[in-house]
Specification:
This protein is α/β, with parallel strands linked by helices. The protein has three domains: 2-133, 3-Layer(aba) Sandwich (Rossmann fold); 141-190, no CATH class; 193-267, P-loop containing nucleotide triphosphate hydrolases (Rossmann fold). 47% of the residues lie in helices and 16% in strands.
């Protein structure tokens, strides 16, 4: 038995005929006699394909289309219309209907259209599956790649991201160390907290200490107000210190003490 579809028509005889035709083709069929009933059914257990009459006692085709697509935006809605209401069906297609059929319905056309609607649903699902697979296997936090070396890096990023430990990223200039740091942050429990990066080689040692740890008002000439350092700005987030080896040994020692104690101290 194929997956279910929903028939919406206020004429009981029409619903019964359509149900027999489609069940003979192997479809599981649900029916609704009003637009409200159809919306309730879709909310409870949505069908991917809906075959609906345009003229309903409690609404019109465009309105029922809006309601059905609101409940299940990915569904394929096929409208049935008499020749006098084709304009309404065309308008509905512009708003997202999959197709429309004119009454009296042609059995072969009905079956083909229903089949195409399910094919569309299958393609959408396959597209989502492939996108998710691509994201899971080949992309993480901005890193994309299928090569074995890149996959190995992605596995390491996922592994270390959950750790609160300090991470050393090695690589030549321009190889993407900050990109790796951002990927680790994006995969970590800290992803909703700040990410702060600093190029240690670009700031003189005389200013770096204040940039990292901040300062209090009056701590030195020109300190008219309290200054927040990088560590405080990135509280509970991630700090990436690029080219940290270019810092003076004294400042490196202070950073090491901060990383070990997890607190900011004033020396």
């Amino acid at each position: 038995m194929r997956e279910p579809l929903l028939i919406v028509d206020d004429e009981r005889s029409q619903r019964d005929i359509l149900q027999r035709i489609l069940e003979a083709e192997g479809y599981a069929v649900r029916t609704a006699g009003t637009a409200r009933e159809a919306v309730v059914l879709q909310r409870g257990s949505p069908c991917a394909v809906v075959l609906s009459d345009v003229k309903m006692p409690d609404t019109d085709g465009v309105s029922i289309l809006d309601d059905l697509l609101t409940v299940n935006p990915a569904s394929s809605v096929i409208l049935m219309t008499a020749h006098g209401t084709i304009d309404s069906a065309v308008e509905a297609m512009k708003k997202g209907a999959f197709d429309y059929l004119t009454k009296p319905l042609d059995k072969d056309e009905l079956i083909i259209t229903i089949g195409r609607a399910f094919e569309r649903i299958a393609l959408l699902r396959e597209n989502r599956r492939l996108r998710q697979e691509l994201e899971d296997r080949c992309q993480v936090g901005g890193l994309i790649g299928r090569h074995a070396s890149m996959q190995a890096i992605i596995r390491v990023v996922k592994k270390v991201a959950a750790s609160p430990s300090t991470i050393l990223i090695l690589g030549e200039s321009g190889t993407g160390k900050e990109l790796i740091a951002r990927a680790i942050h994006a995969q970590s429990p800290r992803s909703d907290r700040p990410f702060r990066a600093m190029n240690c080689a670009a700031i003189p040692d005389t200013l770096m200490e204040s940039e990292l740890f901040g300062y209090e008002k009056g701590a030195f000439s020109g300190a008219a107000a309290r200054g927040i350092g990088l560590f405080e700005a990135a509280h509970r987030g991630t700090i990436f210190l690029d080219e940290i080896g270019d810092l003076g040994l004294g400042l490196q020692a202070k950073i090491l003490r901060t990383l070990q104690e997890r607190t900011i101290r004033t020396w």
